[in-house]
Amino acid sequence: MKWLDDLAAWFLEHVDEVAEVAGPLLNLPVVMIGPIVLYVVQQEEVVLQGKVTRYPVEDRDELADHVFNEPRRINLRAWIGGILPWAEGLDLGGPAIKHIALSWLQRNKVPVWYISRMAVYPNMVITMYRPLYTPLAQNAFLADIQLEQVKFGKEPKAEAEPPPEEPTDEGEAPVEEVPEEE
Questions:
Q1: DSSP single-letter state for residue 118
Q2: Which DSSP letter does residue 61 get?
């Protein structure tokens, strides 16, 4: 879908600007996955986990020498619905558009910002999206969503070689013309 591709491209190009805006957004009653405003978040579970490396040392106990953080994982259960009155300028659209956008973000593994009421989490990818339709809501649906933080490696920057200098007329050897063979 062209409009979602354009939206994702814009979002990735303007990540720094979104980060500047995200701070004040924490004061609003808004929860967003990228450009998608969530209606009501019933449950938000942020999983912060570390891993300890352990190595056996001859006849002694294991040696635990390093601890590193695993990527953050966030599990959500949220109602996704129509445009909220206080988020009119921010919101993407109604429930059908939000469903299409969330499905697209999950399938294409596009990194987005997750803005909750507690913090702003950059570089989150939707690893699981499960919409649950219920007759209780006409203009909304319930969804279980799992986000996982991705880390990007730094790209090595190759230094460009200066272009070769163009020869000048001064000091060049004369060019001999070679006759063509018949």
A1: S
A2: P
Contact (CB, 8 A) for 76 and 124: no
Q: Which residue stretches of the chain have pLDDT < 50? A: none
Q: What backbone torsions phi and psi does residue 84 show, to the nearest 5 degrees?
A: -80, 140
Instruction: For tokens 């986990």, name the residue.
Output: 49
Structure tokens at 31: 């929860």
Look up the pTM and report it.
Answer: 0.62
Looking at the DSSP bridge assignments, the partners of residue 43 are 77
Helix (H) or strand (E) holding 44: strand 40-47
pLDDT reported for residue 125:
93
Please name which of 116, 176, 130, 122 lies closest in space to residue 148, comparing C-alpha atoms: 122
Candidates 98, 90, 154; CA nearest to 126 is 98
CA-wise closest residue to 79 among 135, 144, 127, 29: 144
- The span from the CA of 67 to the CA of 54, in Å, is 10
Amino acid symbol at 6: D
* N-to-C CA span, the chain: 62
What residues form DSSP beta bridges with 6?
none
pLDDT of residue 176: 65
